[in-house]
Amino acid sequence: MSEPSAGGASRGLHSDRISGAVFVAIALLVAWENRAYPFGSLSTPGPGYMPLVLAFALGAFGLLVVLRGGASPLVNTIDWTEGRRAIVLLITCGIAAYALEHIGYRLTMVALLVFMLGVVERKRPLPTLLVALGFAFISYYVFATLLRVQLPRGPWGL
Amino acid sequence: MEGVFSNLMLGFSVALTPTVLAYAFAGCVIGTLVGMLPGLGPLAGISLLLPATFGLNPIIAIVLLAGVYYGAMYGGSTTSILMRIPGEAASVMTCVDGYAMTQRGRAGPALAIAAIGSFIAGTLSVIALMFLAPTLASFALRFGPPEYTALLVMGLLVLSYMSGGSMVKTLAMAVVGLLFGMIGIDAMSGYTRFSYGVIELSDGIGIVPVAVGLFGLSEILLTAGQATPPPVQKPTLRQLVPSREDLRLSVGPITRGSVIGFLIGIIPGSAHIISSFVSYGIERRISAHPERFGNGAIEGVAGPESANNAAATGAFVPMLALGIPTGPVTAVMLAAIMVHGISPGPMLIVEQPQLFWGFVASMYVGNVVLLILNLPMVGVFVNLLRIPYSYLYPAILCFCILGVYSVASSVVDVWIMLGMGGLGYLLRKFGYDLAPIALGLVIAPMLELSVRQSLAMSGGSFGIFVQRPIAVTMFVIAGVLILLALKPLIFKSKDWRAEVGLDEQG
User: Closest Cα partner for B109 from B301, B308, B310?
Assistant: First the structure.
């Protein structure tokens, strides 16, 4: 687990105070959205009963995290060096998820691996292409053909 | 006793059929590989393989997934000892003395003792599981909604107490998981909650996208771009033979690790991780030469490795006897059983004896397979570690997408996985434990149903939870845990987790 480093400057936002405040905000949002569902009564609790109880609990825990957050590390001391790469990977996977049912499994995987190996990791073109094609077609054969898992096909039956 | 053995024979008649044997072997091999790869723990491995089990019969499915689970426990030790890279979290403590032994040219005995300890602990735990699970299941037939409520609440509190780090933060994570579990159709009223018109959310959020996102994807987001791993040592078969002194020193830690691991495994939480920390702490404390720990003490390998394997088996007790998962791994395995229309719970052992006893017998077989895989074939497996991580992680990412999509042929599940991956990444940066989210998600429907049924039974009185002896006992245990958690805050003392190396709670 990547632990935030302690210490650093004495001024700034503490990580637990921020996360605790986010939990309180989520709790309020859940409670607000939960108005659509009947609370029922204690003897016959409705579908809104449990979410409200949980929203209350999350708010309470969030508040405790905020109150006890003074000893937690400052946000600006947390190491975010891999953050940019993480965002790139998430966006790339998001695009792949969108493409999956539009251009099919194999083409999506080839494109995803070519981008990650060729562009993000700057690998040479030949190994990149071999890995991408190998992974896409072998995994399709194993899962779709042998294990009969339904995987989307794109244009030209790919 | 006689009944147990005749049932076990029934189990072996199932487990020793060529098909089941082949799948147990395949599960162990996949598990060993999964355990060795950083970024793919047992949970992500099982989640990714889950869709492939839908077409199999339930016995084979559970045998395959269990093989992956304890295979990963074994595999994790190899990278810890040879490279100081824990393949999965439970192997963290093995790194300390295991790698120190490697640096002194004693990688062989360390690997051998890890495998032998895991084998003994695994086998002893299966024996304990065999006797305990049916007893617990018949006891659980007395459980009504209040008892189940108490059990689930106690489970969440135990998980929070046993986890490293702040109990408040862990409980907040459990509540977040429970809230995720509120999404979808309410079983009692038929209302669809928090789905915002997305049809796929009507059935709720599945455990697989959440587990793969939180544990697999977030790990890759944290580790992608890391430097190439150091060169790998490849011990020969002759170097693997431990000396008589190694064996003498390891007997005690293996025995204690087996008992501690099994007991911790039964209670909810990241049992296999905690058990290895506790075992290491105890071995260091009772050793006549504690200064050897950290510098290549074989007891520091034997104890934690035995404990985490025993805990992996112990976790199956409540899963099989009560139908209650004690952690995300058993939650995914329960999902694998339920896909086949089998209801887990106290009646499982009676209604599905072939499944239960076949599974138990397959664990004996799996332990033998793993011993063979992890000693003579360790040289073959370490070749995998020579693949650069920059090639490995894009392939793992693709497997994550493939595995999650395959569960329900749903892109929404892939979106959920990506969301959970981002959430897991941020939460880990902020020092939160993710296991309670997965556990909360799985037990949310059970908890909601039992709370609402209890209140309906009592006409709205919460007194029902303190009027029934089993329920009140569990709530007392939960209360004691809260008091224990508060103790270090009031008296400024260290609690046991800090003593054994886990973070002191906040």
Answer: B301
Residue B234 belongs to a domain: no
The answer to whether residue B141 scores a pLDDT higher than 50 is: yes
Nearest CA-CA partner of A116 in A139, A83, A84, A93: A93
Residue B434 has pLDDT above 50, yes or no: yes
Are B140 and B150 in contact by the 8 Å Cβ rule? The answer is: no
Q: What are the φ and ψ backbone dihedral angles of A99, each rounded to 5 degrees?
A: -70, -25
Q: Are A23 and A65 in contact (CB under 8 A)?
A: yes
Average pLDDT, chain B: 82
In a domain, residue B233? The reply is no
Report the distance separating Cα B307 and Cα B312, nearest Å.
9
Residue B268 lies in a domain: yes
How many distinct structural domains can be found in chain B?
1
pLDDT tens per residue, range B316-355? 888 888 888 877 788 888 887 887 778 777 788 888 888 8
Contact status, residue B80 vs residue B378, Cβ threshold 8 Å: no
Whether A100 and B405 lie within 8 Å, measured CB to CB: yes
Q: How far is C-alpha B130 from the chain's CA centre?
A: 19
- Interatomic CA distance for residues B200 and A97, integer angstroms: 15
Q: What residues make up the domain containing B284?
A: 2-228+241-499
Q: Which of A39, A43, A50 to mutate to test the interface with B (most CBs of B within 10 A)?
A: A50
Query: CA B364 → CA A107, A138, B120, distances in Å?
Result: 43, 33, 10
Helix (H/G/I), strand (E/B), else coil: A47: coil
Tokens of A69: 């957050």
CA–CA dist B24, A49 (Å, integer): 44
| DSSP assignment letter at B188 | T
| A60 to chain B: closest CA residue | B172
What is the distance in angstroms between the CA of the first residue and the CA of the last residue of chain B? 47
Are B448 and B182 spatial neighbours (Cβ–Cβ below 8 Å)? yes
CA dihedral A101, B419, B447, B151 (to 10 degrees): 120
From A44, A47, A90, residue closest to B422, measured CB to CB = A90
From chain B, the residues in CB contact with A37 under 8 A are 186, 191, 193
Is there a contact between B37 and B78 (Cβ–Cβ < 8 Å)?
Answer: no
Q: Do A46 and B189 touch (CB under 8 A)?
A: yes
Across residues B246-258, what is the average pLDDT?
Answer: 92
Residue pair A107/A158 in contact (Cβ under 8 Å)? The answer is yes
pTM for the complete prediction?
0.79
**Average pLDDT, stretch B226-230?**
56
Least confident of A147-151, B75-79, B158-162: B158-162
pLDDT at A24 over 80: yes
Q: In this complex, do B414 and A150 lie within 8 Å of one another by their Cβ atoms?
A: no
CA closest to B448 among chain A residues:
A50
Q: Per-residue pLDDT for B194 more than 90?
A: yes
CB pairs under 8 A between A and B: 183
The complex's ipTM?
A: 0.91
Report the length, in residues, of chain B: 506
Q: Are B104 and B346 in contact (CB under 8 A)?
A: no
Distance CA B220, CA B217 (A): 5
Tell me the per-residue pLDDT of B36-52, one tens digit each, with 9 for 90 and over: 776 567 877 887 788 77
Burial of A126 (C-beta count, 10 Å sphere; 0-12/13-18/19+): exposed
Query: Amino acid identity, residue A87?
Result: I
